[in-house]
Amino acid sequence: MADVGNGTIGFTVNQGEPIRVLPVEEAEKGLYYHSNLDQNIAVIMRTIYIFKSESKGNEDAVEVVKNGLSKILVHHYPLAGRLTISSEGKFIVDCTGEGVVFVEVEADCGLDEIGDITKPDPNILGKLVYEIPAAQNLLQIPLLVIQVTKFKCGGFSIGMSMNQCMLDGIAVMEFVNGWGEVTRGLPLKTPPFLDKTMLKPRNPPTIEFQHHEFDEIEDISNTNMLYEEEEMAYKSFLFDSDKLGRLKEQAIEDGALSKCTTFQVFAGFVWRARCKALNLVPGQKTKLLFAVDGRQRFIPQLPQGFAGNGIVLTYSMSTAGELVNKPLSFAVGLIKEAVKLVTTDSFMRSAIDYFEVTRAKPSLDGTVLITNWSKLSFYTMDFGWGEPISSGPVALLRKQVLIFLPHHKDKKNICLLLGLHVSAMNAFEHLM
């Protein structure tokens, strides 16, 4: 095993040689279609799940988790393939059956010594997820990489690195829960539905809406320069149901809105607070991007267990001056209108067709991108050691991205993760 730790930041780990885990049965070969909704989020997401049982040690954790992985790959066989480029110049999966990269690691400490994993910290948490050395681009990174780290206290972690072009948050949770089920010898509650051709663009493509989610925004506030000059700070903030309830009361107190959802009010509150903390000039345009689950909004609806990206980006747009100086109801109202856009099959098909014609990717300058995982089942997977005692992402993908997570098993509480340059983070913390 190779020592890949750094004793100055917490703990060291001894890493075994990477191996490949193959489906336990022969799987289908050939090219596997990616929809246009998959194309926009071809990024590597790294997450960690930590397990510890009072009655069971971690001696056989690696073998049990690895054997379960080979079983679930029979159902999710595209994850054992490799990403490539189609004749149309799009991402597509070649189902080669090369397998998932799997690494066994031992840490020189107990779980209590790694700190709070709800705070993204690549220096610490990055040791718990394996990265492919010398990879130059996405095509050189396997679609799924798993690291199992055993700790001296008897606990262990599963570090998962997955290309999000394969599965959105809902589908990832169905995958990991299914992985736990087959590991424990149970049938899959939600078998994956792998055919994504129902999301093909129309012929001819028909753009029926203005898709401002792709607009580029000029950074007249010079925030990009601040990010270059100052160090980034990453923090997490917990909002319990009482705080969220007070925000809802604040959003409707002026009578402009009669009701709003928890997501709408929290997104509006955070969007405004971030603008204030960055001290944007009043005329600065600011865009809020977030994904809406389209599974039940498409016509026909996507089948249960849809194993792909069934989410569609929608947007709100404002100037910083309006957002900051008007009451909270203004921001929340913009978000309610953004949600309405995605209630129709025609808007979502138009977004698919827009990409087909333009190959545009959403621009993140002047933008806040919210990844809402607050309703996902992070704490229901079980490999035989009970449900995770903690879970979370290793790092935020971009400085413009922030994440809503459930606080442990209580989905009524939301944990906000974000990164800002230090002076803005101090201001944001005060606003929280």
From TrEMBL:
UniProt keyword terms in alphabetical order: Transferase
Pfam families: Transferase
InterPro entries to which the protein is assigned, alphabetical: CAT-like_dom_sf, Plant_Fungal_Acyltransferase
PANTHER family: FATTY ALCOHOL:CAFFEOYL-COA ACYLTRANSFERASE, TRICHOTHECENE 3-O-ACETYLTRANSFERASE
Family of the protein in this entry: Belongs to the plant acyltransferase family.
Protein name (database record): Omega-hydroxypalmitate O-feruloyl transferase
